[in-house]
Amino acid sequence: MKKYLFLPVFLFALVANAQIDSTLLKRVPVDTSYTRAMNMDAVYNRPFLQIGNLPASIGGYVEADYQYMGQDGITEGHSFRIPRFTLFVASSIHRKIKFLSEIELEEGGKQISIEFAALDLTFHPLLNLRGGVVMNPIGAFNQNHDGPKWEFVDRPIAMTEMLPATWSNVGFGLYGKYYSKAWAFGYEAYLTNGFDNSIISNNQNKTFLPAAKENALRFEESSNGQPLFTGKIAVRNNKVGEIGLSYMGGIYNRFEEDGLVLDAKRRLDVLAVDFNTTISATKTYLVGEWAWVLVDVPETYSQQYGERQKGGFVDIVQPILRGKLAGFDKAVFSLACRLEYVDWNVGSFEETGGNISDDLWAVVPAISFRPVSQTVIRLNYRYMQQQDILGNPPAKIGGVQFGLSSYF
């Protein structure tokens, strides 16, 4: 991935050059269709900066945080990190042809990945073609994951440690939207490269979908020649909110090679439901997601490899103060709380009938301050309990997290 290292240098050089004359810099206006934006619009519903007459606009966001965490009374002390630094590059080739890329540098540049790099062609509001590296629309967080949009330092555990957050693949698909007064309907359907055997053959020693993200070759070829299908439908009402139902499934294992059958075809299926709403009377914002995972695990594997998984989260965000705060005209001070749960192995032991645990729950109260809508300062206290597969007394994990995140 070293060949992508020139991109941050190139983009910052452009910005530095543009600073010679501030008139060269201008904010790209948000598309008016985003006044009723849905989760599927998240990829374009971001701030961008136009540099002079260049045919492309750029943007991005950065996150930095501090944490002091302990487990069962033992702590590793104070820790600082930059979990991610993300760059966007977009271009309108034609009023009906758009390109956008999202490149993420994680852990201070230790890992560089292309999360999105797709060309969109619009034929009709209900019929649009997208091709390239696309973000599989399973749930809502996978698409709408930008750090500045959330009041919490960590991403939801179920969406990162059960589902592979920011999961993207090379492929093609169709999407569209339809509006009728206060209602909006949207759909997406893609065929892409898929998962591989690493979801059951990994260093986690359990069924673990995020392990497939380590395979960079998925951007070059399919692991087994079988496409992964991802589809989503969503409905939004301006007064009620949005609800989405999504599905992702396909063959994950390499079942044959050079015509020689190696194994039966084994499926992976994921179903997710997501919602978000704002209670108008109190301005309370609610957002959540729940997912179920089904994996056809070979009988030769032990029961620690789960065939069923489930998990999700709910965020409650309550603005307390709005208006002029600390010299900012439209600042917002909020209280928030996240409730989350994940079970990596739903079922019972065949020998005893006892429950297979391997689960985790967490409560994360938070305080956030937004001096402007695109920047958030957040203070969290994370408390969670995690059980092993045998259901032994859970490990108790807790600590303070402080961080900031901002678009630029």
TrEMBL record:
Keyword terms: Signal
Signal peptide coordinates: 1-18
Record-linked InterPro entries: Porin_dom_sf
SUPFAM superfamilies: Porins (SSF56935)
Protein name, per record: Phosphate-selective porin O/P
Source organism of this protein record: Algoriphagus aquaeductus
Phylogenetic placement of the source organism: Bacteria, Pseudomonadati, Bacteroidota, Cytophagia, Cytophagales
